[in-house]
Write a structure and sequence with these properties.
Layout: H1 26-29, H2 55-61, H3 66-73, H4 77-83, H5 92-102, H6 107-110, H7 119-139, H8 144-160, H9 184-187, H10 194-197
Helix pairs in contact: 3-4, 7-8
Organism: Botrimarina hoheduenensis
GO molecular function, one term: DNA binding
Protein name: HTH cro/C1-type domain-containing protein
């Protein structure tokens, strides 16, 4: 059989074996043109931990310390720190216990960290900051008029939120003022609508 015997209509020419030799390898005649398969890139780094709640953020915004939260729920402080981690997968009973201790809607503990807090939680946080300021004024060495105004503000706040009675003052920074240097608060009278204006 000669070289023309290997040609067919509509086909390609494949030469037959040469005299005294062997047929050439297929790879030498028609090299593969298929693209090489690239390796699939593997993800690098540690996987991101899933967030289940934002208990710690709300506890801090409510001005509740770890010790106070543990006392309200009747659990050790180590358990409070462990449960308030965002990646802690708590049971429904644990979430209800936290909801009662923080006095916030349960949904505020479960929504994403980037979501806004509900209106009741934001309002309570404002009242809390106001009460801490009032307590700081009452504990300072201010004039008698400032102390009397602070007591009046305290009564107004407690009429709205009686549970804030045990709130402590802001942590003092630096040396306390004497009566002779009571600061600008003694020189600038506080209006009677100060409590309501602070919530607007």
């Amino acid at each position: 059989m000669n070289a023309t015997d290997s040609y067919t209509m509509g086909g390609s020419f494949v030469p037959g074996p040469l005299a005294g030799g062997t047929a050439p390898e297929r790879s030498e005649i028609a090299p593969s043109t298929s693209p090489a398969t690239s390796p699939v890139p593997q993800p690098s780094g540690k996987p991101t931990k899933r967030r289940f709640h934002r208990i710690a953020k709300i506890r801090q915004q409510q001005g509740l310390s770890v010790r106070s939260a543990a006392r309200r729920m009747g659990v050790p402080m180590e358990q409070v720190r462990r449960e308030e981690k965002p990646d802690a997968n708590l049971s429904l009973a644990d979430l209800i216990r936290w909801q009662e201790a923080l006095e916030v809607p349960l949904i505020d503990l479960l929504v994403e960290d980037t979501g806004p807090l509900s209106a009741p939680v934001m309002a309570r946080a404002r009242w809390l900051r106001l009460m801490k300021t009032v307590k700081a004024l009452m504990e300072s060495n201010a004039s008698e008029g400032v102390t009397r105004m602070a007591e009046m503000l305290q009564q107004q706040v407690l009429e709205v939120m009686p549970e804030l009675d045990d709130v402590t003052a802001w942590h003092s920074v630096g040396q306390r003022r004497t009566q002779d240097e009571s600061g600008r608060i003694a020189e600038r009278p506080v209006s009677r609508t100060f409590a309501s204006d602070a919530l607007r």
